[in-house]
């Protein structure tokens, strides 16, 4: 979703300036002045820590680093130590490293995670150089200021179809309940793994709940079950008029038992049909 390169506090050579001069230039930047004010001290300076890193790189404060050479002066890469963050794209990262991050999240059973990878060159495979995952964040903070759109993108990926599952409605024109096998046949035709009716709730062909006082409560039960990927909700027409619907959208609507309906049943059926969303045209089966 997002790739950033975190770099520890340091300076980049120009081929002209000494390390001391480069540090003074960095100290004048708005970002460093802001961070230093927050910390109450200079976040980047030629102090004991910086001198230690210069020694490791065989440099002195008076050395003139070649152009584009990065000179590390801090051990940590967070902002309070003068570190910086650069956004990268997937094309900047070797595919092996991207797969490693995804595999790490999957190994910890995380749908969403931040993977901190320590690596010298992100464009080369982790298998061809020394690398280590130092941390996995199950609740990472990312992009609030520079990429606020990420949160909407993440929700679209983690919650497809705006969080909705396919819901099919079967309206019974009379108060008679068909055989369970007949309802399960319709359920199979619609490829639903959840079925609700007054007689109970069934998930993955197993009874999940016993009989309900009404079909509306049964529909509540099946739609609140996280194991249900698609549902068939069976309502008596009279119950729709009395309780309304559990969902405001249906992928299909079928009416069953019209041939056996009395005049009173038909009146209730028409009342129920009038409550359907405008884009739900029912199909009628005898």
Q: Biggest β-sheet: count, sense, barrel? A: 7 strands, mixed
Low-pLDDT ranges: none
Total count of helical runs of at least 4 residues = 9
Proportion of helical residues: 25-40%
Let me know the number of strands: 13
Q: Tell me the strand percentage band.
A: 15-25%
Q: What is the CA–CA distance across the termini?
A: 51 Å
Write down the overall mean pLDDT.
91
Tell me the layout of helices and strands.
Layout: E1 3-7, E2 10-12, H1 19-27, H2 30-39, H3 48-56, E3 70-72, E4 84-88, H4 95-107, E5 114-119, E6 131-137, H5 150-158, E7 167-172, H6 180-189, E8 194-197, E9 200-203, E10 206-209, H7 215-223, E11 231-236, H8 237-243, E12 252-256, H9 263-274, E13 283-285
Parallel strand pairs: 7-11, 7-12, 8-11, 12-13
Antiparallel strand pairs: 1-4, 2-3, 5-6, 8-9, 9-10
Helix pairs in contact: 8-9
Brief overview, please?
Helix content is 31%, strand content 21%. The protein has 286 residues and is of the alpha/beta class.
